[in-house]
Amino acid sequence: MPFIPITTEQYERAISEVKKVRRVQAKRVCIYVNNLGITNITLYLDNNIHISFSSSVLTEWKELTSKQLETIHLSATEDALAVDDSDVHISIAGLLRDIFTSVVTIT
């Protein structure tokens, strides 16, 4: 099957449509490396919800260097985290599920 490029307008329209469908989107992500060298990540969601966690919960990226972790950013659709030089995107919905199910034990 041949590669068929799309226009910038088609790309932006597709991203806009995906953003309408997704329910868990972040407005911003901040990376902070503390004095112990631990990389912490804060997601800023709707309704002033801020969720901070250590990068150690990102097992998919456990081999990344601290310099690579500092490049964490939101994907184009704002529903996943991405890193420069990595093909792995981590969905925010899945990440939040993993964080909260590892902290909360249902009995």
Short description:
Helices cover 28% and strands 22% of the residues. The chain has 107 residues and is α+β, with helices and mostly antiparallel strands.
Main sheet, how many strands, which sense, barrel? Answer: 3 strands, antiparallel
Shape: globular
CATH H-level homologous superfamily name:
Uncharacterised protein PF10387, DUF2442
Strand order in the sheet with the most strands: 1-2-3
Total strand segments: 6
State the helicity in percent bands: 25-40%
CATH architecture: 2-Layer Sandwich
Q: Number of domains in the coordinates?
A: 1
Look up the CATH topology.
NE0471 N-terminal domain-like
Give keywords:
107 residues, alpha+beta, three-stranded antiparallel sheet, globular, NE0471 N-terminal domain-like, 28% helix, 22% strand
Describe the structure.
By secondary structure, the protein is an alpha+beta fold. It has a single domain, classed as Uncharacterised protein PF10387, DUF2442 (NE0471 N-terminal domain-like), CATH 3.30.2020.40. The chain has helices at residues 8-21, 66-69, 92-103; strands at residues 28-33, 39-44, 50-54, 73-74, 80-82, 90-91. Strands 1-2-3 form a three-stranded antiparallel sheet, with no helix packed on it. 10% of the residues are buried.
Produce the secondary structure layout.
Elements: H1 8-21, E1 28-33, E2 39-44, E3 50-54, H2 66-69, E4 73-74, E5 80-82, E6 90-91, H3 92-103
Antiparallel strand pairs: 1-2, 2-3, 4-5, 5-6
